Amino acid sequence: MQTHALPILQQQLLDLQDNMLNFAYTLTSDREEARDLLQDTTLKVLDNQEKFAEGTNFKGWVFTIMRNIFINNYRRIVRNNTMVDKSEDLYHLNLPQESGFSTPECSYNVKEITKAINQFSDEYRIPFTMHIAGFKYNEIAEKMNLPLGTVKSRIFFARQKLQSQLKDYR
Asked: What architecture is domain 100-170?
């Protein structure tokens, strides 16, 4: 891609933000989750802008990235909440399956956690959310142009801060 095309791509991305937020809301049905998905998608598009082939549908490319992020996040939640019954007679299969989001209390806790994380300053929130999203420490350090030790300590302090803010939810 030619360097003069990068600012055009970034402007196109800015122009799409409202459409992207609406699409994210249709996927998530939650304003906060939609904003998070919009932010994740924007970051991923900017990180991978050299992979966009000129002359193709930019909006379609961006929306595909958003949909894939949503699907991957959904799969991660399902995978983390899947219970494998290793008992001899499979007697656990008849027990009710808890997804972690089925009760109002659980969804309230998720919203409280998200709210607490979003109150962090950018220097802690960004590396912490990237770490939660699955980025490795060295990837975060590279993307944020920070030393590896700084990233690790910020994530550690963010985790401690989150634990102290949410100590009543344990």
From this structure: Orthogonal Bundle (1.10)
Query: What is the crossing angle of helices 58-80 and 5-15, to 10°?
Result: 60
C-alpha dihedral sign at 101, 103, 104, 110 = negative
Domain range list for the chain: 1-84, 100-170
Task: Print pLDDT tens along the chain (170 aa).
Answer: 444 545 788 899 999 999 999 999 988 888 999 999 999 999 999 999 889 888 889 999 999 999 999 988 888 887 777 666 565 555 544 444 444 445 554 544 667 777 888 888 989 988 888 887 778 889 889 988 999 999 999 989 888 888 888 776 54
The reply to whether CATH 3.20.20.70 applies to domain 1-84 is no
